[in-house]
TrEMBL record:
The keyword Transport applies. GO terms for cellular component: cytoplasm. This is ARM repeat superfamily protein. It comes from Actinidia rufa. Keywords: Cytoplasm, Nucleus, Protein transport, Repeat, Transport. One of its GO terms (biological process) is protein import into nucleus. The keyword 4Fe-4S does not apply. It comes from the Eukaryota. Residues 19-76 form the Importin N-terminal domain. InterPro entries: ARM-like (IPR011989), ARM-type_fold (IPR016024), IMB1_TNPO1-like_TPR (IPR058584), Importin-beta_N (IPR001494), Importin_beta (IPR040122), TPR_IPO4/5 (IPR057672). It is found in: Cytoplasm; Nucleus. PROSITE patterns: IMPORTIN_B_NT (PS50166). GO terms for molecular function: small GTPase binding.
Amino acid sequence: MTKARVVDGDVGQPRAVELSNNDKPLESRRLAGIVLKNSLDAKDAARKEHLVQQWVAIDISIKSKIKELLLSTLGSSASEARHTSAQVIAKIASIEIPRKEWPELIGLLLVNMTQQDRPASLKQATLETLGYVCEEISHQDLVQDEVNSVLTAVVQGMNVTEHSPEVRLAATKALYNALDFAQSNFENEMERNYIMKVVCETTVAKEADIRQVAFECLVSIASTYYDVLEPYMQTIFELTLKAVKGDEEVVALQAIEFWSSICDEEIELQDYDYAENGDSSPQHSHFIEKALPSLVPMLLETLLKQEEDQDEDDTTWNVSMAGGTCLGLVARTVGDAIVPLVMPFVEANISKTDWRSREAATYAFGSILEGPSVEKLAPMVNGGLDFLLNAMKDENSHVKDTTAWTLSRIFELLHTPSTGFSVIAPENLQRIVGGYEDAGPSSSLLTPYLPDIITCLIATADRMDGGDSKLRSSAYETLNEVVRCSNLAETSYIITQLLPVIMNKLGQTVELQILSSDDREKQGDLQALLCGVLQVIIQKLSSTDETKAVILQAADQIMVLFLKVFACRSSTVHEEAMLAIGALAYATGPEFGKYMSEFYKYLEMGLQNFEEYQVCSISVGVVGDTCRALDEKILPYCDGIMTLLLKDLSSSELHRSVKPPIFSCFGDVALAIGEHFEKYLPYAIPMMQGAAEICARMDNSDEEMVEYGNQLRRSILEAYSGILQGFKNSKPDLMLPHAAHLLQDDSVTKAAVAVLGDLADALGSNVKALLKDLVFCSEFLAECLRSDDEQLKETATWTQGMIGHVFAASG
């Protein structure tokens, strides 16, 4: 570890001194601040915890001196030094305030705001610091009096008559970060009115950057305090209308985003399950429905503000795109009611000579296809399909692109032959390029045209300009969908013929002459796409016994190609080749064993690839695939595999998302090798129990961590399930000491109910004593049996039967 990454008395204090010294060069002060900030925080959770503990361990007198220097730097004449100091103070606050170790910080900062003689630059830096602190800590870390004082200082800082633009901008940004803290204040009508008055006034400030942040505050308020917005909506509508029609783009974008946020809230309210929540259902104010006659025309007008080059950059986001996205959300919110408001705009503009009008009309139509009923949209789709197909030959690329997008949405959202509405008919089939249906066992209209479609897609992928605008990847992704959705009974001979074509193309990439890093990148991109196509073909042909023989016959050649691809050392190719090999292992079953000696070294490399963690995660999945394919034939490789999996779990460098699949993989290994897994129990079980304990201590207020905790619990239960089943026929008693620990976790329903059944099945009468006193188990199963999830009910029924069998057999 370098000295620059360590905070201690020998390093942290000199950095703070350097930052606070007005006589030092600005660049060295800035670098000192960055080094100090980076020594307090890191993106990786394990690394961050290590840095936190380092800071906590520093002598309190040294920490006090560092904090004193940082607070004094807020008064520096150099804006960069003030800015950096504000960030570092917030990082320290994120460590100390939750521990109640810097209780005076908020008060010290507020003094800067309340003393009349303090310069504007200090007030600006103080507000910036307050904003960063609010961003870093939880709203539970401050008492209400502190929250009130912070909000008072921030809102007063937004006052146009008292402060400079720099102070007001910092105050508005601080309010944005402090809104989560204002729950009690928004419940008080007088305080809420004052905050909303100041925010609304700030949306018409002279400075565009202040107006932008003020609208960002409104966006946040829309999602956080939707239920109290009713008295302010008319004013907000007028403000957003003015901004969208005539303000600078950055401001207009936020004004549109306000209405998108309102839509998000109302869509969520409509999806809310009132039956399960009794009388506590949240308030639905129907803001979108009430604003519809004025809101829709405002959004339609934005569609005409396209940029000439907007299709050339995937990162482009402008008023036209934002307006169309919002229009789509409005359609999902109000359903059929939007159609009569949009269709006159479509009809008035669709045939105009100006490309902007034609593109806007098409975009408007495509945007409202999700939300309204099929019955409402069907006449428009039937009447407009020929027009849209003709528009695919429009002279303007923007119009063609939006038309293709609209056609794809028609097929994605409305084309449902099973319910009686089909866009495809024999008379229009030849003109339709993008739509394709999975006809299941019945005959597909598209089958006769499949060879021509595949030929055209491959020719498109081979074009010299295929690398531009993702044309090549789009062609191959479409080819994948064509193969994936085809009726295999009718198209097996076509897909069988496609297999050697793709194999030949992949073989040619290995022979390409590589003269530069650009050549290597292009080779890797193409190999990734072709491996992806092979994966889909393997999965498709191996789905029936009749066509699996094609894969078994070609497996040796396919595997040789994949091994050659691995030799290219490209992480992207590695990823795609790994996925394809997983499919091949599933298809070939025990026969895959003959490839393991050569493949294993690449599997090892994948399991050790911490930096490109997606590759590591996919490699873990392939271990599961090979275990299921080989069963006990995987045994010679298990010592190496388990060593690497345990090492991955212990690593603080590996991304946390890889760890749940590793626990699931333990179950796959145990299921494959049965009683031979016994030697790994002393290492695997403590890891599983340790992870379960971490889950129990997770912060339930963090939605992301809650989701991760559920993934972790589910995977741990899957591991237990595989181990129990693996030991069932030989050594079931090995798991008896761990059964009580296992039954403590009821958080992930499907996996938990399955593992209860596995416990009863594997341990037999031994499980009776464990279950008889656990009221949770019977209540849990009863709840699962009442679920609407058929799979869950089926599993719960099986588990109930297994437990009942055990109790009946043992009397």
